[in-house]
Design goal:
Radius of gyration: 28 Å
Shape: elongated
Helix content: 40-55%
Strand order of the largest sheet: 1-10-9-2-3-6-5-4
Distance between the termini: 89 Å
Number of helices: 24
CATH class of the largest domain: Mainly Alpha
CATH architecture of the largest domain: Orthogonal Bundle
Largest sheet: 8 strands, mixed
Length: about 475
């Protein structure tokens, strides 16, 4: 259905004018060159919802080289990394635009890259979109703006439901990543997914294996960073997609928590994720590292499960195994080395607090806790607090109080000793001068010795450090 401005179109236009005034000048540039241009997809949806941002998607009948020529005049910066797929991007002021030629695209049975064919009209272009709520457009070059909605996306938007413009089977065959996108939009928009779409996701889950790890990672990241990731993760597990892209999570359903037999580790992990999100203000806002760590913190349990004589179950060293499994999975998903290291470190450390008991740790143990957490100390605070999901209020309050006492002790030692800057009391140059040695492995051994002394005893001062180092040196002969 193509209509003149109805209420939805009026709202979208008003939002576009108020929040993206540069769209009109871009439309004028394409019109002057004899081409059509329409705002399309997510930005139209968001304009109707009153939350249009500064990243705008357009579609046009201009071929990519013509689009690039127009953008070079209109935009301050232009990049054409997607030109093979018909997309050219540009930025002017705070507004980033992507302009894509009308197209259809399909994946061959075993191909990781789509075959792109250019279309002749916007209706055909909209038919290839992932969901009806993203298959609406605002034509900007044919006089007054025209709201285009051939697949009743506006009605689905009002009903908060995700459907595909064509059959779900055909849509997911064309681009299997759309199955993960359905879960992501359910989390981001709080939408339901239609029954036929869910069925197609179950039937075709295996087809996600042809999608590159990088694209899967990006969808998973967007899902995790949404307002309600539990919805999307649960959907991925229920339809079988998680068994392929994140198999460690559905495996948690097989495990029963050693302390609370009324829940499984899978549900516990989702609750920890939600509780970590509730504490993210301590990290400055939404944080991918803490969300990954919360979701994955117990994935070592299936491999470490052991039945206890007389009943019960244990998961000894599951944090160590979990840290290794986390590193392996995030590598497969092509996360950055920095994220891999940070998340796996948090998973490996997440049980350390439980040795604290009622506060029996020595100052040395507290220093080591801070040293091992390093720059992730605040993340570890969040993860450890989020990991308490007991329904027993007395026990939960006791755990919170005990952890608060640890944080308080860390704060005192931080002030007294600058724990965040723990270093040996002597540096490498001083060690070489005192021992009369050249740069070598022995200097590293000496610094390790001094660091252990620092952790055990606190600041030594240069004089005592020198004396202790000479004793150590003499003991080595």
């Amino acid at each position: 259905m193509t209509s003149a401005l109805g209420a939805a179109g009026e709202l979208a236009i008003r939002s576009l004018i108020e929040r993206a005034p540069l769209a009109s000048s871009l439309a004028d540039a394409f019109k002057s060159a004899g081409y059509r241009l329409a705002l399309v997809g997510g930005p139209v949806r968001d304009a109707i919802l009153g939350r249009l941002g500064n990243d705008l998607d357009f579609t046009t009948d201009a071929r990519p080289e013509a689009t690039k020529k127009i953008l070079k005049v209109w935009a301050e910066n232009v990049w054409d990394t997607g030109i093979a797929f018909g997309t050219v991007a540009g930025k002017r002021g705070d507004t980033t635009v992507e302009v894509t030629t009308y197209r259809t695209e399909v994946y061959e049975i075993d191909s990781r890259k789509p075959e792109v064919e250019y279309g002749e009209n916007i209706e055909g272009d909209l038919s290839r979109r992932d969901f009806t709520v993203n298959a609406m457009a605002l034509e900007l070059t044919q006089g007054a703006p025209i709201f285009i909605d051939p697949y009743n996306g506006l009605q689905d938007l009002a009903n908060k439901i995700l459907r595909t413009p064509t059959s779900a089977t055909n849509s997911f065959s064309d681009d299997p990543l759309r199955m993960m996108r359905a879960a992501r939009f359910a989390s981001q928009l709080n939408f339901e997914v239609s029954a036929d779409v869910l069925k197609a996701m179950k039937d075709m889950a295996g087809r996600i294996s042809i999608i590159s790890a990088e694209r899967v990672r990006e969808e998973l990241t967007k899902l995790l960073m949404s307002a309600n990731p539990r919805v999307g993760i649960t959907m991925l597990v229920d339809v079988g997609l998680a068994e392929i892209v994140l198999p460690e999570i559905p495996k948690l359903q097989l495990e029963i928590d050693e302390h609370h037999h009324h829940k499984d580790v899978y549900e516990h992990s989702l609750t920890v994720l939600e509780q970590a999100i509730a504490l993210e203000d301590r990290l400055g806002g939404p944080n991918l590292v803490i969300r990954l760590a919360a979701l994955l913190h117990d994935i070592g349990k299936p491999k470490t499960r052991s039945l206890i004589s007389g009943g019960g179950v244990s998961f000894h060293h599951h944090e160590v195994v979990g840290g290794r499994l986390t590193k392996e999975r995030l590598k497969v998903l092509r996360f950055s080395s920095e994220i891999i290291e940070e998340v796996s470190t948090l998973v490996s450390l997440h049980l350390r607090f439980h040795g604290y008991g009622d506060g029996e740790w020595t100052d040395s143990a507290v220093r080591r806790y801070v040293r091992d957490a390093g720059p992730l100390l605040e993340h570890l605070h969040v993860l450890t607090r989020a990991d308490c999901t007991t329904r027993n209020k007395r026990k939960a309050d006791a755990l919170a109080a005990t952890y608060q006492s640890l944080e308080d002790r860390i704060a005192v030692l931080m002030e007294q000793e600058e724990l965040s800057k723990i270093r040996p009391d002597l540096d490498g140059g001083q060690v070489m001068r005192l021992l009369n040695v050249k740069p070598s492995a022995v200097v590293g051994d000496a610094l390790d010795f001094l660091l252990e002394l620092r952790l055990e005893n606190g600041p030594l001062g240069a004089e005592r450090a020198e004396a202790e180092l000479l004793k150590w040196w003499a003991s080595r002969g």
